[in-house]
Amino acid sequence: MSRQPLRVSNLTRGSEIAARVRRADRAWSRLVGLLGRRSLAEDEGLLLTPCTSIHTLFMRFPIDILYLNRERAVVKAVKDLRPFHVSACLRGAHSLLELPVGAIEASGTQVGDRLALASTRSGSGPGQ
């Protein structure tokens, strides 16, 4: 996982989704994901890329997930995915954003919305 957290905002709605998102972009970091965590703080998230499906097997808490295409548009939103479930494998998805339950609702995010990723380092431009 990259060490520099990302800020994720919804460009379409003008809302912030999460202020501290870690990126899991290697095989091991995607495999481990949120396993072993007790929870996610309100402003936390995990971006799995590339990724088209996840599982919550052996997780201790439910999550919201956003499926994103390569242009960072939301192609599917899943609220309150409980532990010991598997999400659908979605054609057209390139990455998944795992969030605390309620994050999708709080940000007003819907299918079709465009998201922006930015480094939380001051003076930095958009993250990849």
Placed side by side, the strands forming the largest sheet appear as 5-4-6-3-2-1-7
Give me the secondary-structure category.
mainly beta
Shape-level CATH architecture: Sandwich
The CATH H-level homologous superfamily: Protein of unknown function DUF192
Q: What is the CATH topology classification name?
A: Jelly Rolls
The total number of structural domains is 1
Number of helices: 2
Beta-strand content:
35-45%
- Following the backbone from N to C, one meets helices and strands in this order, namely EEHEEEEHE
Largest sheet: 7 strands, mixed
The level-1 CATH class: Mainly Beta
Distance N terminus to C terminus?
Answer: 13 Å
List the helices and strands and how they pair.
Layout: E1 6-10, E2 15-24, H1 27-32, E3 44-48, E4 63-68, E5 74-81, E6 95-100, H2 103-107, E7 115-119
Parallel strand pairs: 2-3
Antiparallel strand pairs: 1-2, 1-7, 3-6, 4-5, 4-6
Can you offer a commentary on this structure?
The protein has 128 residues and is mainly beta. It has a single domain, classed as Jelly Rolls, CATH 2.60.120. The protein is built from 2 helices and 7 strands; from the N terminus they run E-E-H-E-E-E-E-H-E. It has a 7-stranded mixed beta sheet. Strand 1 and strand 2 form a beta hairpin. The protein is globular and about 35 Å long. Residues 123-128 have low confidence and may be disordered.
Notable features of this structure?
128 residues; mainly beta; Jelly Rolls; seven-stranded mixed β-sheet; 2 helices; 9% helix; globular; disordered C terminus
